[in-house]
Amino acid sequence: MFTVHDSGMAIFLCFLTMLGWGSWANTQKLAGKEKWPFELFYWDYCVGVALMGVLFLVSLGTSHVGDTSGAAVWTAIISGALFNLANVLLVAAIDAAGMSVAFPVGIGLALVIGTAVSYFQTPKGSVAFLVAGVAFILVAMVVSAIAHSRLPKVASKGKNLGLIFSIAAGLLMGFFYPQLMRAMGPGPGMLTPYGALLFFGIGVLVSSLPINGWFMRSRGSSFGDFLKARAGLHIPGVLGGCIWMAALGFNVLASGVAGPAISYALGQGATLIAALWGVFVWHEFKDAPAGTNKLIGSMLAAYAVGLVLIGRATL
User: For residue 267, what are the domain limits?
Assistant: First the structure.
């Protein structure tokens, strides 16, 4: 079974987490160009998450399922369901209120809760550097929201509902990672990281039946539309799920050395990667008014400082 033993490798895996969590949404962009609705894309995404959980298990590790308690298995499955519900709520929040409201509230709340709870469960690393790093990343998220708010857009009629969805998404997203960590450990009845990832993926896939089923009905799509689509439309979603789950796997492996709180906080620096994609590849700010570039520069600088401080917390 592959394990991580030094902080350098742990930081590198956290960097891969940032790349994966910050880049998987490009597959959604590609699917959107094909007019493939997100709720149908999401079925493929969930299949990709579950598939990568299986691939991690058979290629790098072992599950110890035979020696594992049912409580540990259910803990990992519930973690997957929590993440899945949070992810769908975040999408609904973005749809109702826009990125400028949903993202800083949802992801910012998740970052604070996930880091704090993870550190409380496993106090590892310098708390001073960790808190300072998280603070800089939260500042960067606020600046990102201000920059997004300057983009020309149609005024949303559902900002209050979007804010509620954002808060709910952030609360759930903040607790899925500590929940997953509780399923793992060297003690009797606990899962290995690979077993935890396997059952997390199962939790995501199974919980999609009610969660994405509701989301699909609310947007007027049907499962028949999904089944009738040509094979090529399913590739981006499966790839996106595989990328996101691979990033989670790297993060879980790094947490054994860096500590869950630091691993999770570094992973949430993925927002920096997503911002870079949006600015330099998708040109999302090309129609923004003068002065927006200064905000973007400040956002990137705050992210960079925050990530350096969180990385320093491992030393």
Answer: 7-312
